[in-house]
Amino acid sequence: MSQHRHERLLSSLQRLTAEFLQRQAGAQSVITVTDFELSPDSKRATILISVFPDHKGLAALDFANRRSRDLREHIKANLKLRQLPSFQFLIDEGEKHRQKVEELLK
Description:
Elements: H1 3-25, E1 30-38, E2 44-52, H2 57-66, H3 68-78, E3 86-91, H4 93-105
Parallel strand pairs: 2-3
Antiparallel strand pairs: 1-2
Helix pairs in contact: 1-3
């Protein structure tokens, strides 16, 4: 797969994932996709999320992993792909560290 096609696919997958999570999360928490990593063969995707409020992070991570099958269906309906990647969600700890550094620098 060409680099340009890989980047376009990555961008589309990240956008669709963010839309899906925002729509499905409800009012209890805000889930933001902070990074989306796609393996070179496009078979695995690692999705880093941040959650507000922070104490809902584990519940949001569990929610996202439980809904990964629905996410695949959402992407399948919106993108024409021969093979969809498997999804793994992780909490983006780097975002928390960046926020702490910003607070210390103020």
